[in-house]
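ok posting inputs for the PTJ job
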Amino acid sequence: MIPKNHPRYESLILREKIKEAHKKGYLTDSGMIAHGRGEAFDYLIGEKTMPPANEAIKVAVATLIQAKNSVISVNGNSTELDIDEFIELAKNTDSKIELNLFYRNKKRVEIISKLYKDHGYENLLGIDDKKIRYIDNIDSPRATASEEGIYKSDVVLVSLEDGDRAEVLVDSGKKIIAIDLNPLSRTAKMANITIVDNIVRTIPLMIEYAKKLNSKDESQLKELISDFSNAKNLNESLKYMELSKLSKS
Ligand code: PTJ
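and the output
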């Protein structure tokens, strides 16, 4: 039992959740390592949403609302940390949710599908192996997508994403929104819009913005999106973190 007045209470609670999901078999071993990496970056940014992340969040939400076929891609870690929030965000931005596991196996797909059902979401995509297609015919587990979801999408929101897969998605011409605490990761650099923040803070903020931006017309949304430069935003995050000296680009 972690005492509520512990200075690292929130962070320790998240760690417990990750451990539990791993014990239950739907969060992979590497997912625990990925979480630890995230924790380190979160520590460096003071476990708060930085101003450049807030800006990227607004642009990301406008992009999701404006999309013709937007998809929120989820995996073991993101499901454990934010399942209800992803469902709510999907509802508020008219997006689909697709399961895309880097370490895919039948047991994980079954447990996660059931979790979404138990949380009231019946339409999780990407769970039927027979319906999986390969983006741009790239015969790789990194390029898998469901026909109705990511395969046909124009905008995909990814979090805790591996760089190879982000590259496949970007190369296929889709607009990629990434949430990644590491502004130096390949995914962060490759995406069109990167939110350098913890998904546990980002998704609730995205829901708030979606509620506000839903009433804007297309030209107002376009204006919001057009001024955004991902490279510039990442640089601002790095400066904020005082890690700019580590950046090679
Ligand atoms: O569930 P699966 O099989 O799809 O596996 C997913 C993992 C996480 C194992 C896989 O995608 C992976 O290997 O991810 P990486 O390459 O370790 O990248 C994870 C990135 O997410 C790292 O840059 C972390 O800093 C970042 N990260 C970790 N936790 C969070 C995070 N970013 C935002 N919010 C977090 N809570």
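notes: Residues 19 and 32 are 7 Å apart (CA to CA). The longest strand covers residues 70-74.
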